[in-house]
Write a structure and sequence with these properties.
38% of the residues lie in helices and 12% in strands. The protein is built from 14 helices and 13 strands. It has a three-stranded antiparallel sheet with strand order 5-6-9. Helix 1 packs across helix 10, helix 6 packs across helix 7 and helix 12 packs across helix 13. The termini are far apart. It binds one RNA strand of 77 nucleotides through helix 4, strand 6, strand 8, strand 9 and helix 6.
Length: 410
RNA sequence: GCCCCCAUCGUCUAGAGGCCUAGGACGCCACCCUUUCAAGGUGGAGAUCAGGGGUUCGAAUCCCCUUGGGGGCACCA
């Protein structure tokens, strides 16, 4: 099917929030996939949710990925900056004409049709189905409108959304991590919308159009996307494009084993950076969440991971994010740092301490380097430097006599 | 409710029929080192491999069922 095409993978973040630790891991796996199996790693920004997408988030995501050391071969490098690569642009809002063309093609072949149902109609349908204990699905009210009926609605000024006609029958694929998965298209919720009434395309549609034109051969993403996969496969077929292989990674979990969420866990990569986690530790930890070397090695650098990564050892079940283990790994990596490197990395944290008024002066490189022998092995994170040694750089150490207790020696 | 997936110590995992009286790591406990705290070292507790049926001379590993857990069901991505 696709084995003869050169390997291409991608990470397709949506700038609707700060870089999520789960997105970072998916990016890492795609990166390792490309490096290990000799492929091209593409970054594409999925910004079609215009209401929620911001330049600020775009920057956070690109910066975070760069910070981790993951380099991509094609795509935008900086927020609002230019793209690299032969398949640009790599921001979906700049690719609107290609979705429009694909939509027209589907429409022309009656593989898709305009739907004039209002949100109220849809809501009522959903409620009725819920009351009848039926799964929610589009009832197909607009599936067979005549040309006259359509133009009548257009004449009323109503703009239709475009729905893809879901063909009956089972859809199956051989998932690279979980073997064969088969889903009957009857369970897909009916004909789904691919273009909003306002003309902007939707996720399931843009991914397929882009993955097709960007010649993506392996779609490596989170398990939460398995239910989207049959829809996307159907679209690939409708667009007469070979389907890519799919690999669904296990989810990163909260301690209660539900999908990792902001409510229950710290999910923004930027927060880990702020607290003084090293990129080496994060990369190492994330790689080991849902994957293992198959051996007992566990302290691994990015380049070592690039050499060892394999699809066979990707886990099927979700993995709880264990912050204590991350901290332990972080300590290991801090202790591995060369003195000058550690001094450099500590600097921003000292500056922050001073900005916050917790210390009065920042030590020079020599002083800091001299301190390293007793500090390096005690630092769980770079951010701990203030608590550990901050008293050295304050003008006056407040002493509470009550805390000073006489000590008896043998 | 419907569809799909998953299932080895608390957690991350090794394990692809005999090497498993199930190995490693985090965390936990103890000891050593140490005039504190760490780091490091050594040892320990911790999994009847979710349960039940098969298949096999032999199953954590293969099959089936049950149970449990999770994910998804938008004009979000």
């Amino acid at each position: 099917m696709t084995s003869d095409r050169p390997l291409r993978v991608r990470i397709a973040p949506s700038p609707t929030g700060p870089l999520h630790i789960g997105t970072a891991r998916t990016a890492l796996f795609n990166y390792l996939w490309a490096r290990r199996y000799g492929g091209t790693f593409v970054l594409r920004l999925e910004d079609t949710d215009v209401v929620r997408s911001t330049l600020e988030f775009e920057k956070d995501i690109l910066d975070g990925l760069h910070w981790l050391g993951l380099t991509w071969d094609e795509g935008p490098d900086v927020a609002d900056g230019p793209d690299r690569g032969p398949f640009g642009p790599y921001r979906q809002m700049q690719r609107l004409p290609s979705y429009e063309a694909a939509a027209q093609s589907l429409l022309a072949r009656d593989l898709a049709y305009p739907c004039y149902c209002t949100p109220e109609d849809l809501d009522a349908d959903r409620k009725a189905q819920e009351a009848a204990h039926e799964p929610p699905r589009y009832v197909g009210r607009c599936a067979h409108l005549t040309t006259e009926e359509r133009s009548a609605r257009e004449a009323e000024g109503r703009r239709g959304a475009l729905r893809f006609r879901v063909p009956p029958g089972p859809v199956a694929w051989d998932d690279l991590v979980r073997a064969r998965v088969e889903i009957d298209s009857a369970n897909l919720g009916g004909d789904f919308v691919i273009v909003r009434a306002d003309g902007t395309p939707l996720y399931n549609f843009t991914v397929v159009v882009d993955d097709a034109t960007m010649e993506i051969t392996d779609v490596v993403r989170g398990e939460d996307h398995v239910s989207n996969t049959p829809k996307q496969i159907l679209l690939f077929r409708a667009l007469d494009h070979p389907e890519p292989r799919f690999a669904h990674l296990p989810l990163i979990l909260n301690p209660d084993r539900t999908k990792m969420s902001k409510r229950k866990s710290q999910t923004a990569l930027a927060d880990y950076i702020d607290q003084g986690f090293l990129r080496e530790a994060l990369v190492n930890y994330l790689a080991l969440l849902g994957w293992s070397t198959g051996t007992e090695e566990e302290i691994l650098s990015l380049s070592e991971l690039e050499q060892r990564f394999d699809i066979e050892h990707v886990q099927r079940g979700g993995a709880v994010f264990d912050r204590e283990r991350l901290e332990w790994l972080n300590g290991r990596w801090i202790r591995r740092l060369a003195p000058d490197d550690l001094v450099d990395r500590l600097r921003p944290f000292l500056e922050r301490e001073r900005a916050a008024g917790r210390i009065d002066q920042i030590p020079g490189d020599d002083e800091l380097r001299a301190l390293l022998p007793i500090v390096q092995e005690r630092l769980p994170t770079l951010g701990a430097i203030g608590d550990l040694a901050g008293f050295l750089w304050v003008a006056e150490v407040p002493l509470d006599p009550a805390l000073i207790v006489p000590k008896r020696w043998d």
